[in-house]
Amino acid sequence: MKKSFLSALAECPLFRNISESDLCNIAEEYATFTVCEKNEVIFSENNYTRSLVIIIKGSASVTKQSGNSKILMNIHSKGDIFGMATLFYEEENYLTQITALEKVTMAVFSKENVKKIFSVYPAVSENYITILSEKIHFLNKKITTYTKAETLQKVASFILQYTNDEKTESVLPFSITSISEALNVGRASVYRAFDTLENDSVIKRDGKKIIILDLSALENI
User: Fold this and answer.
1) Are strands 104-110 and 81-82 parallel, antiparallel or unpaired?
2) Domains and their CATH numbers in the chain
3) Is the dihedral of CA 136, 140, 145, 149 positive or negative?
4) Which residues contact 93 (CB under 8 A, 6 or more apart)?
5) Could you report the per-residue pLDDT of 54-70, keeping only the tens digit for each?
6) How confident is the prediction for the chain on average, in pLDDT?
7) Which residues contact 26 (CB under 8 A, 6 or more apart)?
8) Phi and psi of 213, rounded to 5°?
9) Residue 30: CB partners within 8 Å, gap ≥ 6?
10) Closest by alpha carbon to 158, among 177, 182, 134, 135?
C-alpha cells in the first residue's frame, strides 16, 4: 500500500483515531482505487454508485443545477469524502454533480464493504455518525443563512460559517463570484456587503482571508 494513499485516508475524518495498521488493512481489504481524468463527471444525478468515495489525490467540484445554471457548492480535495447522502438512503437520484477539476485518484468503498468495516471496526461507525451530525449542523447553519433577507446578513453568516476555532479569522473557500452564486445575490451586492463590513471596522480583508475585528457586531448583523 502506497504511503500517499494511507496519508490521504488518514486525513479523512471517517478514519479518525484509527491505527496505521488497521487503516492499511481497511484499504487493502475493502477499498477499490480508481482514477478520473480532468473534467470527467464522477457522480451525477442519474449516474452514481452507492459507495463512499475518498479523494487520494487531486480535487473535484460539487455543483447543483439551478434552472439553467450550475451553483458551486463545494470543492473536494485530498482526504475529503462524498457519497454519504445516498449510501443508506434509497434515493433514486444523486443530489449534486461531482466533477474532476484535475486528474483525481480516489478510494471507493461499496455499501456492502462499508457495512463490513463498521462491524469489524466500531470506531469507524462512530466517526461516520459524527460526520453526519456535523453535516446536519452545517446544513442548519446554511438554512439560516439563506432565509435571511438582507445581503449583509447573508454575507456575515457566510463568513461566520468558516471562522477558525478562535473566531478571529475566516478563510473563504470560494471567490466572490461563487459566493454570490451560493447566496443567490448579485456580485455587486456581495462586494458592497464586504465593503460595508470593512468600512464599519467589523472585518478586514486580505484576499480570501477575513480578519474578524468585531465578532459581536458580525454575529448581531
Assistant:
1) unpaired
2) 3-138 (2.60.120.10), 148-219 (1.10.10.10)
3) positive
4) 45, 46
5) 999 999 999 988 777 78
6) 89
7) 9, 15, 18, 117, 121, 124
8) -90, -30
9) 109, 113, 114, 116, 117
10) 182
**Which set of grid coordinates corresponds to residue 23?**
487503516
- Bridge partners (DSSP) of residue 54 are 81, 107
Cα–Cα dist 207/72, whole Å:
19
Percent of the chain topping pLDDT 70: 95
Sign of the Cα pseudo-torsion (52, 138, 194, 210, in order): negative
- Bridge partners of residue 47, in order along the sequence: 44
Report residue 54 as a C-alpha cell.
Answer: 475518498
Residue entry with cell 494513499 = 5
What grid cell was written down for 217? Answer: 457586531
